[in-house]
Amino acid sequence: MTIAALRPISLCASALALFALLQPAAQAQTIALDVPYVPTPQPVVARMLEMANVGPDDYVVDLGSGDGRIAISAVKDRGAKAAYGIDLDPRRIDEAQANAKQAGVVDKVVFEQGDLFEKDIAEADVLTMYLLNTVNMRLRPVILDSLQPGTRVVSHAFSMGDWEPDRSDIVEGARIYLWVVPAKIAGSWVIERENERFTVDLDQHFQEISGTTEHQERLRGRLNGTELRFEVDGQLYVGQVEGDRIEPISATGAVADWRARRS
Ligand SMILES: C[S@@+](CC[C@H](N)C(=O)[O-])C[C@H]1O[C@@H](n2cnc3c(N)ncnc32)[C@H](O)[C@@H]1O
């Protein structure tokens, strides 16, 4: 994406992209940040956390946490059980800790100075980012491999290449992307239905599922975390992926009595 292409969406996005081009000069003067500090406007923070449906069961991790506003809002405004922010710049950590104190959330929010690429993010229920496309793309394999299926990932301004977002929105000129980490279901499955049983080979491209049954019928589907919806032979199947099994979920118009297991 070019800087010009970013301009109509967000000036902040353009500033960050420009930084990426000028990075060697910036590095000579200061800490070698992968992304400069530009805070997310508060209405955008609010919408990011709303799109991720942050609530009391969630541990929220903000990578490159700046003055801490996303982690602090997750706890203070959305009631998240805990939040964590990491930033390479110690000045940001000092600011974030002061802001957490002022907001009265120090018991639930931790800020740590460090490199976001070295942080183990596996425990996150919600991951938030305002970084750069290049940084998101470096994080993408870690997100897909180490986060639990169903984890929500929200990014201000920057996408993740050909991993299409599950939702997006624009607030105050800033685009917000939401992805739900999909379960991994590529491979061969046996589907059992009443007295019928057939195998299906599934291909997976992020949340998009396609496949062919042993009777050469085409299957098309989509994952929302661990929830799978697919159609085969004109019939809708909705199920919950539980490791090597898929159990049916009742849904209007969907086949009721079926299940699947890896073959
Ligand atoms: C665009 S700001 C976003 C701040 C905050 N998340 C927000 O949305 O308001 C990016 C932040 O990432 C931090 N950062 C840059 N490179 C980093 C790295 N490798 N590890 C951790 N933090 C980094 C910067 O110091 C900066 O505070």
N/C terminus separation: 42 Å
SSE-based structural type: alpha+beta
* CATH topology description of the largest domain: Rossmann fold
Described by the principal axes of the CA atoms, the overall outline is elongated
Indicate the CATH class of the largest domain: Alpha Beta
Write the layout of secondary structure elements.
Elements: H1 3-6, H2 11-29, H3 42-51, E1 59-63, H4 69-76, E2 82-87, H5 90-103, E3 109-113, E4 126-129, H6 133-146, E5 152-156, E6 167-171, E7 174-180, E8 187-193, E9 196-205, E10 208-213, E11 218-224, E12 227-232, E13 235-242, E14 245-248, E15 258-262
Parallel strand pairs: 1-2, 1-4, 2-3, 4-5
Antiparallel strand pairs: 5-7, 6-7, 8-9, 8-15, 9-10, 10-11, 11-12, 12-13, 13-14, 14-15
Helix pairs in contact: 3-4
This protein binds S-adenosylmethionine.
S-adenosylmethionine is lined by residues 16, 33-35, 37-40, 62, 64-66, 69-70, 86-89, 92, 115-117, 130, 156.
How does this model look, in words?
The chain has helices at residues 3-6, 11-29, 42-51, 69-76, 90-103, 133-146; strands spanning 59-63, 82-87, 109-113, 126-129, 152-156, 167-171, 174-180, 187-193, 196-205, 208-213, 218-224, 227-232, 235-242, 245-248, 258-262. By secondary structure, the protein is α+β, with helices and mostly antiparallel strands. The protein has two domains: 3-180, Vaccinia Virus protein VP39 (Rossmann fold, 3-Layer(aba) Sandwich); 187-262. The model is unreliable at 1-9 and 25-29 (pLDDT under 50). The protein has an eight-stranded antiparallel β-barrel. The protein binds S-adenosylmethionine. The site of S-adenosylmethionine has 24 residues, from helix 4 and strand 2.
